[in-house]
Amino acid sequence: MSYVIGVDCGTSGTKTVLFDEMGNVIASHTVEYPMYQPKNGYAEQDPADWSDAMITTIKAVIDKSGVKSDEIVGVGISGQMHGLVMLDNDGNVLRRSIIWCDQRTEQEVEQMNEILGRKKLIEITANPALTGWTAAKILWVRNNEPEIYDKCRHILLPKDYLRYILTGEFATEVSDASGMQLLDVPHRCWSKEICDALDIDMSMLARVYESCEVTGTVTAKAAALTGLKEGTIVVGGAGDNAAAAIGTGVAEDGKAFTTIGTSGVVFAHTSDIAIDPKGRVHTCCAAVPNSWHVMGVTQGAGLSLKWFRDNFCEAEKETAKYMGVDEYYLMDKEAETVPVGADRLLYLPYLMGERTPHLDPNARGVFFGLSAMHTKKHMLRAVLEGVSYSLRDCVEVFREMNINVSDMMACGGGGTSPLWRSMLADLYDCPVKTVKSKEGPALGVALLALTGAGVYSSVPEACKAVVEVNKICEPNKENVPKYESYYQLYREIYPAIKEQCAKLAKL
Question: Is 240 a catalytic residue?
């Protein structure tokens, strides 16, 4: 039996899981670390915290499991995307990493648009200039910390810094590199045109690999620290969403997943490059060679339900304590007593502005159709349905782009709700499934490592062998046309109040 390690470097902590070749969890360990916010809108982390956490967790899973180091055939690393790690000529970190949720780069985004133009950026990098992405962060350091920029010789992403600690190699892979806004996404290589226009020295950028390719091997120093065997392969790995896709079996055309966490993501695999010229969805290279993925994001998905719970559901919280159940379970049960459409009550989940499809930071939440007959249960159902409508918006953009979405997985906290899954099945008009494994990104990069080690011949083959479906929710043919009528009305509401949202923001 072969074993493999998946490392998932997240924002709150790093989780490392040791799997066997069939994807069974042998041991798991997590180490948390802080995020620093020196100013409003800033978000930074110390790369030393990530490397310490990786070393600690790898050593812990090997020790816990009793598996011998020579039985571990490879390591895969997943990570939070877009973070900027700057190293000097000797490989020393020059400053804390500016991470994905940092919003300091508004002027640099304007600079990128002035130099290259929105159309050119979308054409080459498949996405409009974005404050959270890496290129704008590089420009910010050059504009505001020139003494640090002058010392910089290597630019890495968070997970790729961990690769450097393990292997001594400066390498990245296509899925994570797609989120830097320096990659030619259609051709899966660095864009000389973008780098020249922004005056970024391409020698600072890491070599680009496919996600399942071997990028290096564990050094003697890293082996002594972690308990891994010197020479163990380390594959490209993947950015967190691309890794989660592999961990849920989304590695072929027609397959997609919906995640309902604080935000909501709809993610679809495609073997043909597809770019939305309006920039409403993100296109990146997939963790499967010669494939891409398209991702739509709704900002206030699970956040909407949490907001409703925290402000209006004290009774449910108290009852849940006495019953020994989760309050969301009780909220689901209450919402189930209300018919489809919540008796003509609609909710727009734009508590934090909106990305797909509106790209409007001024969009705000709305209950539409509220009448004296409506109760808290109606509002609760409307919130669940409104989030589902916003996720359907993402699917509609995919359909405009001729991307097939017929096999949908559900994951994240919201994906555990049978009611929410049934709403998605009815609105997408396709089955919505869950998978048995809850390891997502860690399993995804483990499968990439198993492919790189030759245990499986391809990433899709690894997914078919390991990823198991747990539950399937089929669409209810009676509900599909009912939801369709409400959804079409939902789509009309935001355009009708867009100007008023902008005026409200200025008051």
Answer: yes
